[in-house]
Amino acid sequence: MTDSLAAALSALDAAPRPYARRFDSPEPLAGPVAFLPSAFNPPTLAHLRLLHRAAEAASAHPAALLTTRNVDKDVTGAPLAARLEMLLAARRDGHEVAVLAANAARIIDQVAALETAFPAADPTPVVGFDTLVRLFDPRYYTHMAAELDPFFERRRIIAANRGPHALEAVAEWLHANARDYADRVILVELDPQSAAISSTRARELAAAGVLPDVVPPSVRAILAQRRYYAPGPGLT
What we know:
The protein is an alpha/beta fold. It is built from 10 helices and 7 strands.
């Protein structure tokens, strides 16, 4: 299975423009979609709870978007195809999310990829606090206002608290650092337990030989069979 997924991801990554593909169904996406772009290394319960919470807030279908490119990170740990396999496995545990991949690193380009691949879909990005900060970081733009202004004229985003940051802190940061776009951001709150879950913690547990309880059972079963996060240079 991972071989065919790897081939599909390689073809996607080689596409000359932003593009996306759906892996859980042959049906194209349509209607409102709340999508969470992430490395999913591995997928955690926090990812899935955030997706369901955001989709509920936006009256949209939840979708997990694996990105073949990242503005900050190289691919280490589980191969990208294995991450897709784990996302598909999570559906067996009752997490009814669409499983997507795109070849775009930036949020605005991911939306463009989804619009090209699924013209009938209405995509809304879902971000945690760390990704929200990156979205408004000038380092990732030639001219930030010229790129973000037209994006936010058409789109909103959904943002949630993460780790030690309460939702109030997210709102304060937004109004202090991205005031012009604050009314285009829907804030949703994760419960403290979910907000504290991270893929980093899941990798640390797996590296220590402990099957992480912060991932869905079907993902835990895959990690029991494959040592993606064994100590060494791949664990970052």
